[in-house]
Design a protein that fits this description.
Strand content: under 5%
Structural class: mainly alpha
Shape: globular
Radius of gyration: 21 Å
Length: 291
């Protein structure tokens, strides 16, 4: 945000700089999705795409989900005794809440499409499917999944096809959003037991390296594209792709200089605290946890 707000002076007017500063403030509070939902209903909607912090709306939705999801899981853990009952209750709650969120998404998309795109209640079902996929993986037998190769390949094809089918004429979120969401869950589940071709590809070191940088890369790619478009109006797709690839350089720098030190400081024993936390939960909730 510091880099974006500083670079703003070279590309935008003072009025636009002020708007982007408001975006940065709202993102600092994980509320930029709400701000963009409001902006898209006023006369400045055409300027939203020129905001170098537009991409932060999805991160705000994600953090809002966690702020609700984590306390909800803790509350269920404290109220439901026994791991099996917890898993059953959590699975049922996840299914009900995800279905309710998807139904609300379809309703909002028809009545208020901008609200459906930006707000958490219309997007929570996507996170819910991810959580349910994790539950499915944990309950799978240790032996390889039958037809895992086919499930993985089909999921990958659907995932790629969903990207090709997404155009300005396709309304998101909605039925079409099920394709990439379920396809991602399919890749996760099929690769959880046994090695698949797609799983092996995604586990290769080059893609794992990209995966490690993906969060930082996401943060940097959109400002690069916006500032480039302000410099070169109507850039070609090839030029835009080169700019996105170039964003990997600051992404790698911030990963190694900022993200990694914050996540893994020397004073933090990342190997010990999950076990101590698990023991505390086990004593409180009377779970029979594996060692």
């Amino acid at each position: 945000m510091i880099v974006v707000l500083t670079a703003d002076a070279a590309f935008f007017t003072p009025f636009e700089e002020l708007r982007h500063a408001h975006t940065a403030r709202s993102f600092g509070l994980y509320g930029s999705n709400i701000l963009f939902a409001i902006r898209c209903t006023d006369s400045f909607a055409s300027d939203v795409v020129r905001d170098p912090l537009l991409h932060t709306w999805s991160l705000s939705v994600e953090e809002q989900f966690y702020l609700i999801y984590a306390p909800l899981v803790a509350l269920i853990a404290m109220r439901v005794r026994g791991m099996s009952r917890f898993n059953s209750f959590f699975r049922n709650a996840g299914v009900v809440l995800s279905l309710a969120s998807f139904a609300g998404c379809l309703f909002l998309r028809r009545m208020y499409p901008v609200i459906a795109f930006y707000v958490l209640p219309a997007r929570a079902w996507e996170f819910g499917i991810g959580a349910l996929a994790v539950i499915v993986v944990r309950r799978l037998p240790s032996r390889p999944i039958r037809h895992a190769q086919w499930i993985s390949a089909l999921s990958f094809i659907v995932l790629v096809a969903s990207g090709l089918l997404t155009t300005e004429r396709v309304s998101h979120p909605g039925w079409i959003t099920l394709l990439p969401t379920l396809a991602t869950a399919g890749i996760m589940i099929s690769g959880a037991r046994g090695v698949t071709v797609i799983g092996g590809l995604l586990s290769s070191e080059p893609l794992r390296f990209i995966g490690r940088l993906s969060y930082s890369w996401y943060l940097w790619h959109w400002p690069f594209l916006v500032f480039f478009a302000e410099t070169v109006p109507h850039p070609s797709p090839t030029a835009s792709l080169i700019v996105v690839i170039a964003a990997l350089i600051p992404a790698a720098a911030t990963y190694y200089l900022v993200e990694k030190p914050v996540r893994f400081p020397s004073c933090f024993n990342a190997a010990a605290w999950p076990r101590s936390l698990a023991r505390s939960l086990s004593r409180h909730c009377r779970w029979d946890l594996p060692t």
